[in-house]
Amino acid sequence: MERVLITLLVACAGGIVGMKLKIPAGAMIGAMIAVAAYHIWCGKGEIPANFKIAAQIIVGGMLGLNFSMDTLYGLKEMALPAIVMLMGLMVLSVVLGIVVAKTTGMDLITALFSSAPGGITEMTLASEAYGADTPKVAILHLMRLISVITILPIVIKSVLKWMIS
Q: Which key words are in the record (predicted)?
């Protein structure tokens, strides 16, 4: 039990540092880096399996709070764009996952979850249930998130400038 408590304290400290540094998904990324470092150097990190189930329940509850009656009322006008986006993203992410697996030697399930659209927390938790290499999934999603936050606004600005002129 002592190892679990220390691991949770390390996670909390890392999460606080991640938030203070304003890292994207800082609480989770900071906790992940801190616990990884602790576990690598001390070999004593431990979190029981039932904590992972609790984390999934909490994330599910948090996602559920994003919905409102306005969300339901807006579904009709969002149906076609949602279908087009979902189908396009699914096809592209599956193709990208297969290409990554074939060209890099990464196992297919890890490549598919790593290339799937979604949040770091949600995709990492989902990937674990399917036996993917969750640290790789988390790191690749972090790299994607940082790239999207830093590069996409520049791309959008350029596209808008090109489309308007």
A: Membrane, Transmembrane, Transmembrane helix
